Amino acid sequence: MNLKILILPGDGIGAEVTSAAVDVLKAVAKKFDHTLELSEGLLGGVAIHKTGTPFPKETEELCQKADATLMGAVGLPEFDAAPPSQRPEAGLLGMRRVLDVFANLRPVRTWPALVDSSPLKNHVVEGTDMIIVRELTGGLYYGQPRGIDENRGFNTMSYTRKEVERVTHTAFKLARNRRKKVCSVDKSNVLEVSQFWRKVVIDVAQQYPDIQLEHMLVDNAAMQMVLRPTQFDVMLTENTFGDILSDVGGILAGSIGMLPSASLGETKGLYEPVHGSAPDIAGQNKANPLGAIGSVAAMLEYTFGLMKEATAVNDAVGKVLESGKVTADLRPKGKPATTTEVGRAVSEAI
Ligand code: NAD
User: What angle in degrees, to the nearest 10, is found between the helix axes of 13-32 and 339-349?
Assistant: First the structure.
């Protein structure tokens, strides 16, 4: 099979983790006899430096041509004071919108070799295997009107029926191949938009009588994720709540550097680790590349339907974790491995 993939390294540790992930992709292609058609583009701060805009037209065209896009991370401290529309993150939001990747899947699992890496007690995190389905192209991050002046800053959280329906279908279909449970997270005790969200989710659920649906308020969901994470199978939520709750997932998995993600639309797939550009460790070969490598596994599964290949990547990650060759964020007993060493170990295990 020919795999046509766009690589967007982005800023900070983005370039380091995507480089390791591309090596893994090459190892899989070699082992399973696929051809890789890779292209590379600019996104985020690096794109602002070179072209004056965080999401250049050329990048948009490259995204449209590729079957799937692998992104590192965007964000540079020098843009912290810039208005949202001129920050590197605007590039990522623009790309998600253009590709119309409305469902962001964020698997959170506690690998047996990493139960000691979570700051939570082992018996709490052991066996955690959940997937957060975050709506990605609506809600507060895109809602109009929005603005800022001397005396007021404001944003709008708004959802249409279509936006809620399509992401809800994604969550229910995923649950069918898992433990058949969906927990929809909202703030319907305070927000009208959440009352609407809940009503539409209940309507869609009529088509999935085999799936058990429950609803949880977002504040309680944050608490339940650290109290009893094993209760969750598929967690469905809107854009902002999903952004925040998935960082809690980093605690369950041992490090935010462990978490992959897949953003899916009707046709396109965008794959990226959950973490940001981590300016505090950028350029030091210290970043954990396993979130980016897990995103490659997700790409093989969701865009290309290559289950054997995806499993080979995940099994290789499991083996490397068992071997103890991990980066500093996972608090290894011995000397921490570098980003390059972990990437190479996964490629070799494949
Ligand atoms: P961050 O995820 O970059 O970092 C948070 C903490 O986690 C830091 O201490 C960092 O060192 C650590 N960390 C993150 N990824 C790691 C990895 N792979 N290995 C080891 N440690 C890792 O979040 P932040 O500090 O809040 O944001 C930094 C910049 O990234 C900001 O500009 C922000 O807007 C941007 N950001 C981008 C994305 C994205 O591109 N999807 C997501 C979140 C934040």
Answer: 10
* 137 CB near ligand 1 (under 6 Å): no
What's residue 266's pLDDT?
87
- The whole-model pTM stands at 0.92
d(CA 144, CA 222): 27
- How far is C-alpha 177 from the chain's CA centre? 20
Which of 30, 219, 280, 308 does the annotation list as catalytic? 219
Q: Which member of 11, 23, 141, 186 is catalytic?
A: 141
Question: What's the CA-to-centroid distance between 105 and ligand 1, angstroms?
Answer: 18
What is the C-alpha separation between 55 and 95, in angstroms, rounded? 7
Q: Over 90: is that where the pLDDT of 60 sits?
A: yes
**In the predicted structure, residue 107 carries a pLDDT above the cut 90:** yes
Domain positions in the chain? 1-100+259-350, 119-253
Atom of ligand 1 nearest to the CA of 73: 40
Q: What CATH superfamily classification does 1-100+259-350 receive?
A: Isopropylmalate Dehydrogenase (3.40.718.10)
247: annotated active-site residue: yes
pLDDT for residue 234? 98
315 in active site: no
Q: Give dist(CA 105, CA 298) in Å, integer.
A: 9
Q: Does 119-253 carry CATH code 3.40.50.720?
A: no
Q: Which contiguous run of DSSP H or E holds residue 276?
A: none
